[in-house]
Amino acid sequence: MKRLEGKTALVLGAGCVDPEGWGNGNATAVAFARQGANVVCADVNEAAARRAAEQVRAEGGDAVHVVADVANKAQIDEAVALTMGRFGRIDILHNNAGINQRGGVVETEEADWDRVMDVNIKGAYLSCKAVIPIMQAQGGGSIIHVSSIASITWTGHPFISYHASKAALNQLTRMVAVQHGADNIRCNSILPGLIDSPRIHVTVLSFYDGDVEKMRKSRSAAVPMKRMGDVWDVANAAVFLASDESKYITGTVIPIDGGVTCTMAH
Ligand SMILES: NC(=O)c1ccc[n+]([C@@H]2O[C@H](COP(=O)([O-])OP(=O)(O)OC[C@H]3O[C@@H](n4cnc5c(N)ncnc54)[C@H](O)[C@@H]3O)[C@@H](O)[C@H]2O)c1
After folding, report:
1. pLDDT below 70 — which residues of the chain?
2. For residues 199-212, b (16+ Cβ closer than 10 Å) or e, as one string?
3. For residue 175, what are the contacts with CB-CB under 8 A and spacing of at least 6?
4. Where do the structural domains in the chain lie, given as residue ranges?
5. Is 151 exposed, middle or buried (CB count within 10 Å of its CB: 0-12, 13-18, 19+)?
6. Which residues line ligand 1 (CB under 6 A)?
7. What is the SS3 assignment for 236?
8. Which residue, of 13, 21, 165, 227, has the greatest Cβ tally within 10 A?
9. What's the CATH number of domain 8-195+230-258, 1.10.357.10, 3.40.50.720, 3.20.20.80, 3.10.20.740?
10. Residue in 40, 50, 23 with CA at minimum distance from that of residue 230
11. Minimum CA distance residue for ligand 1 atom 5
């Protein structure tokens, strides 16, 4: 028996910034499918959503893709309606969509602050708002938000809107867990740490003079386990939280970080 047999997952932000790479979203979509889930792959980027669904089908899973900006209520509602029309239920809401913008409060433009907040926290509100009534009617479900260790600690570089929005996401997680525990709806956040994903080549490589090896060495050295994580470490945690193995776990924020949040070294 596969761990997610008979379940349907809606994965928001199911793509990857690299059109040929593996990010946390498409790795998780595939990991869900490997455990038997049907997957709807939603992304603001049509090509990224399409590719994630193709990757799921290539593994023998059932998947469709849909274009949806998590900050847009109509598009989220459409993605939820498409999932219900195709599979008739939503057992897993996996909110992976997230963006960041370099800078502290002084350097951050108001429009950039607003967009990061819209995607990282309003998107979680909108998707929970659309999916929770469905989960209530079904008798339960698992909501997983992809937060970040940046929600609880300094990570070496200023990304103020990212830090603040992911911290808000943690508290949204806890409050949804409290309010909907009696509905058998669980809500947890995953906090990826220093992950070796294509995204870091866009966001932090410049801090290491564009030198990939220097970046990998420095980030690995900061971690007690002396290596960065990979997207499958994040995906595997999501599979656990999506499955009934975690049926008594709710309201948690779980670092997937090789121990880095236990140190001051980073
Ligand atoms: N990579 C890391 O080191 C790391 C560390 C901590 C947390 N995270 C979190 O993991 C998640 C995924 O990160 P990743 O590294 O795989 O990034 P990524 O950029 O490769 O993938 C993110 C996907 O989300 C999509 N997306 C962006 N804005 C969206 C929107 N408004 N609506 C719908 N989809 C949208 C993108 O098109 C992309 O396909 C993010 O929430 C990020 O904050 C990543």
Report:
1. 265-266
2. bbbebbeeebeeee
3. none
4. 8-195+230-258
5. buried
6. 12-13, 15-17, 23-25, 43-45, 48, 68-71, 96-99, 119, 146, 148, 192, 195, 197-200
7. helix
8. 13
9. 3.40.50.720
10. 23
11. 192
User: How many residues does the structure list for the chain?
Assistant: 266
* pLDDT for 223: 96
Contact 20, 51 (CB under 8 A): no
Residue 226 tokens, joined: 């002396």
Query: How far from the centroid of its chain's Cα atoms is residue 68's Cα?
Result: 15
Residue 248 bears catalytic tag: no
At 32, list the tokens.
């869900």
How is residue 64 written in tokens? 């469709």
Q: How far is the CA of 95 from the centre of ligand 1 (A)?
A: 10
Q: Is this model's pTM higher than 0.90 or not?
A: yes
* Backbone phi, psi, residue 200, to 5°: -70, -20
Element (H, E) at 95: strand 92-95
Task: Identify the DSSP state of 261.
Answer: G
Q: Which atom in ligand 1 lies closest to the alpha carbon of residue 69?
A: 32
